[in-house]
Amino acid sequence: MSSPTMGGREGSLEAPTRHPLDWKNPEFYDEAALDKELERVFDICHGCRRCFSLCNSFPTLFDLVDASSTGEVDGVAKSAYWDVVDHCYLCDMCFMTKCPYVPPHPWNVDFPHLMLRAKAVKEKQGGHRFRDKLLSNTRGVGNIAGIPVVAEIVNAVNHSSIGRKLLDVTLGVDVTAPIPNYYSDTGTNRAKRASGRAMAVRPTDETRGKVALFVTCYGHRNEPQLPEDLAVVFEHNGIPVKVVGKEKCCGMPKL
After folding, report:
1. Could you tell me the pTM of the whole model?
2. Which of 50, 103, 165, 225 has an alpha carbon within 20 to 30 A of 93's alpha carbon?
3. SS3 of residue 242 by DSSP
């Protein structure tokens, strides 16, 4: 839920203004108020369609409108709004690069914040399945699947037809969906081994001449060569690297 913005200039002529989410307001979690705002914003998006080439939220919305009895947003069932919400992964591209109606435009469209609000309402209602909660726990799943010996078994099962059918039946993971490998030799350990050489720090006018490397959950267990390679490239170019330890999951997969 965003604050209203006053003004009369056309959109995209000024830098976007992002209002804080009013998540402590009880109305933020009111489904009727949410539906009203979703309908308002969806109607603006339907009349513009500039974001058709971004994430699948927009083609999903436009297809729902085009297939409705009225050809307008008012012909789309409120229950179908969740199909649009589920396709948003909060990349923020629509807000930052495409939408001409973001604040300070008076229409005050912040599509990612609205999707985040809808996801919060869904979570409050217990609308997320066990599969979603499990697969979005990337750090927990990675720590278990990345145990030595266990990692080899998990990778073998994930690449077998029987294992994929089992995942499809139990968790609803499509047999054609790509699944990353898991590694016991973590990206954090590999990046630390590849960095840490004693070298002089050479700050510039714009940088401090050194880098803190956050490995991330994916780099830690699924693509450990990425942080390792990054550390090698930095130090090859005379830039000291400090691998940040004891990272916690940012929680982005849950959004």
Report:
1. 0.70
2. 225
3. strand
